[in-house]
Write a structure and sequence with these properties.
Strand content: 15-25%
CATH topology of the largest domain: D-Maltodextrin-Binding Protein, domain 2
EC number: 2.5.1.61
CATH superfamily of the largest domain: Periplasmic binding protein-like II
CATH class of the largest domain: Alpha Beta
Number of strands: 13
Enzyme class: transferase
Helix content: 25-40%
Strand order of the largest sheet: 2-1-3-10-4
Pathway: Porphyrin-containing compound metabolism; protoporphyrin-IX biosynthesis; coproporphyrinogen-III from 5-aminolevulinate: step 2/4
Bound molecules: the ligand NCc1[nH]cc(CCC(=O)O)c1CC(=O)O
Distance between the termini: 51 Å
Order of helices and strands: EHEHHHEEEEHEHEHEEHHEEEH
GO biological process, one term: protoporphyrinogen IX biosynthetic process
Structural class: alpha/beta
Radius of gyration: 19 Å
Shape: globular
Cofactor: dipyrromethane
Number of helices: 10
């Protein structure tokens, strides 16, 4: 192979991620020419509306996947967190590199940690998951919708004089913005989104040459966690963005998967966890989803879908 084209969004984080994969490929393949195909997606065009209202997950990836399918690019780099549980026919998750910090980070211009937030403090996030978790713990907090790329959200946090905002530690670290973090929140306190901190490297399944090129970028521990998390997601995903979290770790060949489904206002939360060997990662993810569904997650999701329909009508 002489040249490979990587499709990416144009946000600073997406470009960092695509360039990172480009540099991994160049380092491992002297003489390989790597170029970026920069694209604007639907998700970038509707930055003012809440993510859940404009269609949620998948919005940032559809056009990029189409470029792959059309042969306008050979590789696509995404945040795995932004991807739906099912890929279009013909595309595969060719490699997942070693996961970056999967945790949420609290960024407070005033220097607050979550525990020290004054009663009624306003906290920015547009993630239903983060809203659910924050409110379940602190019903007094006011959640303020915050969208846009990472830098925009930090700027809005200051402009709106919010007490702080919740963002993914991974994005902040990749962009060299970790000095904004006042607290890295433990996974047990703010369960991360499925795929948070993981880069998804996608290509056409039939493209054996590109698959071989990408294979060395794979991290098996990360893959084990991703398989469990995405099986969990697939069982729960009703087509729209829902307040759910799913996070797995792999230690000594054992998967530990934790999951959560709740109301965005935190008034109901169903949590659970499973453990088992890596080869059974998918089964574990499905089993946890089924367990949560039987313990009330099904009602929460149905209720939530009805409200979404009503708000769209
Ligand atoms: N929702 C957008 C998004 N998609 C991936 C990341 C962060 C990087 C990652 O999780 O890999 C972010 C920003 C954030 O949630 O703060």
């Amino acid at each position: 192979m002489k040249a490979v084209r990587i499709a990416t969004r144009q946000s600073p984080l997406a470009l960092w991620q695509a360039r990172h994969v480009a540099s991994l490929l160049t380092a491992g393949n002297p003489g390989l020419e790597v170029s970026l195909v920069e694209m604007t997606t639907e998700g970038d065009r509707f930055l003012s509306a809440p993510l859940s209202a404009v269609g949620g997950k998948g919005l940032f990836v559809k056009e990029i996947e189409q470029a792959l399918l059309d042969g306008r690019a050979d590789v696509a780099v995404h945040s795995l967190k932004d991807m739906t549980s099912v890929f279009p026919d013909g595309l595969i998750l060719a490699a997942v590199p070693t996961r970056e910090d999967p945790r949420d980070a609290f960024c407070s211009p005033e220097g607050y940690t979550l525990a020290r937030l004054p009663p009624g403090a306003r906290v920015g996030t547009s993630s239903l998951r983060r809203s659910c978790i924050l409110r379940a713990h602190r019903p007094d907090l006011e959640i303020v919708s915050l969208r846009g790329n990472v830098q925009t959200r930090l700027q809005k946090t200051r402009d709106l004089k919010l007490a702080g905002a919740m963002l993914a530690a991974a994005g902040l670290k990749r962009l060299g913005l970790e000095h904004h973090i006042t607290e890295i929140v433990p996974v047990a306190d703010s369960l991360p989104a499925v795929g948070q901190g993981v880069l998804a490297i996608q290509c056409r399944g039939e493209d054996a040459e590109v698959r071989a090129l990408l294979a060395p970028l794979e991290d098996l521990t990360t893959r084990g966690a991703v398989r469990a998390e995405r099986a969990f997601l697939a069982k729960l995903e009703g087509g729209c963005t829902v307040p759910m979290a799913g996070h797995a770790t792999v230690v000594d060949g054992q998967v530990h998967l934790r999951g959560l489904v709740g109301r965005p206002d935190g008034t109901r939360v169903v949590r659970g966890e499973v453990r088992g060997p890596v080869p059974e990662a998918e089964r574990l993810g499905e089993a946890l989803a089924e367990e949560l569904l039987s313990r009330g997650a099904g009602d929460i999701l149905r209720d939530f879908a009805r409200r979404e329909d009503a708000s769209r009508a």
